[in-house]
Amino acid sequence: MRPQFVLSEIGVGLRRNLTMTFAVIVSVALSLALFGGSLLMSDQVSTMKGYWYDKVNVSIFLCNKHDAEQDVHCAKGAVTEDQKKQILSDLQKMPIVEKVSYESQDQAYKHYKEQFGNSPLAGSLTPDQMQESYRIKLKDPQKYQVVATAFNGRDGVQSVQDQKGILDNLFQLLNLMNRGALGVMALMLFVALLLIVNTVRVSAFSRRRETGIMRLVGASGFYIQAPFIAEAAVAGLIGGGLACVFLVVGRYFTIDHGMDLSHKLTLINFVGWDSVLTKLPLILATSVLMPALAAFFALRKYLKV
């Protein structure tokens, strides 16, 4: 097969169906940009899980005199020194516990003022209304239930709380958003495939005279199909290149510059450029293979070669 012939036919086909080719390029670019964004979102959630799960604590809040009057869990009164020592001793004996730290009422009040100093309730609270607590770092954050079972309902314990549960709600929201993006991507991809099939059919119809002559002179089926498949692949590759540009520019302007989220949201460990760059070859490969395969099957059905 002569490369010059294939290249000339690709150019002719793209020019003849310029409007539909443009629609294919845009659809492929948007769908694959969403695809790449979804992959990066999955990486971001995994990175955040690894970062935050390593820092979450289990908190055992102890009863104070105010809880004894209002909370059924503290009906036996405020926690005593003996009860605190026993709780600490039991925690230190548990093999799943990595570290235990104690927070006094004064420390709790100070932390509350730092975080919620502008709250209307801040001015009415006093240190003796705050709860003492033990903050437990577990070797495996998934083993929270072991601590909860051991200390919930014990005298002097108001509640056992797992910060991981709060994070799980956040990650569920992020995963839901990611699935929504994947749904939109699938819809855009379906539209792109329909456009590719229709573009190939229109191109084949407009050149039915040439393909008929090629059949008569004994051209092979692949020789006739190759220019059409290449047209779809080239249009897809252009769309894939645009999708890569969208991802790189989006990462640059939202995280590094422009919105500058990496400095404004310092508590979030954003995915790095390595994650973005590893997605680009996959996007480019998909942008070529998907239109080429769609064109191949469309030609088999409609060109009858």
From TrEMBL:
Gene3D superfamilies found in the cross-reference section: 3.30.70.3040
Q: Its GO CC terms?
A: plasma membrane
Q: What is its main location?
A: membrane
For membrane topology, the record states: Multi-pass membrane protein
Q: Which Pfam families match?
A: FtsX, FtsX_ECD
* Domain (FtsX extracellular): residue spans on this chain: 56-160
Question: Cross-referenced InterPro entries, in alphabetical order?
Answer: ABC3_permease_C, FtsX, FtsX_actino, FtsX_ECD
Top-level taxon of origin: Bacteria
Tell me where the signal peptide lies.
none
**ABC3 transporter permease C-terminal domain residues:** 184-301
Q: How does it assemble?
A: Forms a membrane-associated complex with FtsE.
- Function according to Swiss-Prot or TrEMBL: Part of the ABC transporter FtsEX involved in cellular division.
Instruction: Indicate the family of this protein.
Output: Belongs to the ABC-4 integral membrane protein family. FtsX subfamily.
Entry's NCBIfam families? FtsX_actino (NF038346)
- Name this polypeptide is given: Cell division protein FtsX
